[in-house]
Specification:
It is a single chain. The protein has 247 residues and is an alpha+beta fold. The protein has a single domain, classed as Sandwich (Jelly Rolls), CATH 2.60.120. It contains 5 helices and 13 strands. Strands 1-2-10-6-13-5-3-4 form an 8-stranded mixed β-sheet. The protein has a 3-stranded antiparallel β-sheet with strand order 9-8-11, with no helix packed on it. A two-stranded antiparallel sheet has the order 7-12. Helix 1 links the parallel strand 1 and strand 2. The longest helix is centred in the middle third of the chain and has 18 residues.
């Protein structure tokens, strides 16, 4: 059974995040929020066809491909930073924490795209409205989870937080798969919601301090043809990027 996403209007995003710690926007509301035509966001989708394999999967899987990029967003300024490793502490990622992971960089045509820059700018503006105007240290990840292994795991680390201030998960495409249910739980209690994102550029935004999240595995609808699920994950952190402590 698929549960529909509990979508809110873009005008309700701030109140939903304040009240619940999470909010879902339908594609048309994402377009309204980031002041960008939906067609311009959809035009980014083909870049997901050129993602290299994730060489760091500690479960031995071959089901994940990804690219990575980092930015500092300060008001209207969106500045890419030199390519750097993605790092998380083991407290937030028991499977891959404590490891510097050097993923392939996102392609210049994506980083220079006007719709891409507007999206980062307006999402950062939401963060500033919630936690004060300041520079935001942003990491972006393009993911493709496929069914090469018969099953693909969007979150092999399980239900987790990311160690940032805000997390955005956007569904980019979903082809020939079943499963992939999104689950969001209160970090300090049993309450939670579950739903399946199916429309391209449906967007989930999370207050990382207040909720944990995961996505269930995917399987092919037709094992002979396979399938995949593409997402964009963008994290916003105040004060700096995560990195190993310098002793």
């Amino acid at each position: 059974m698929k549960f529909s996403p509990p979508v809110v209007l873009s005008s309700q995003l701030l109140s939903a995040l304040r009240d619940d710690g999470h909010a879902v926007l339908a594609p048309r509301e994402v377009s309204d929020l980031v002041k960008t035509p939906l067609t311009a966001l959809l035009a980014l989708n083909p870049s997901w066809d050129d993602l290299p394999p994730d060489a760091y999967l500690r479960d031995g899987g071959r089901y994940r491909k990804r690219r990575h990029a980092c930015f500092v967003v300060n008001g209207e300024s969106v500045q890419p930073v030199p390519h750097r490793a993605h790092w998380q502490p083991v407290e937030y990622n028991a499977l891959h924490g404590g490891l510097e992971r050097w993923f392939d960089a996102m392609q210049p045509e994506v980083l220079n795209d006007a719709a891409w820059k507007l999206m980062l700018r307006y999402l950062a503006a939401v963060c500033s409205q919630l936690k004060g105007v300041q520079p935001w240290f942003v990491e972006a990840h393009q993911f493709r989870i496929d069914t090469t292994d018969g099953i693909g795991r969007p979150t092999p680390e399980g239900a987790h937080r990311d160690g940032v201030d805000f997390v955005v998960v956007a569904l980019v495409s979903r082809e020939g798969v079943k499963g992939g249910e999104t689950r969001v739980f209160d970090a300090d209690g049993p309450d939670g919601i579950r739903f399946t994102m199916t429309e391209p550029w449906t967007l989930l935004m999370l207050d990382d301090a207040r909720v944990i999240h995961e996505t269930t595995p995917i399987q092919p609808v037709n094992p002979q043809r396979g399938g995949h699920r593409d997402t964009l994950v963008v994290t916003f952190r105040a004060g700096g990027f995560q990195g190993p402590e310098v002793v």
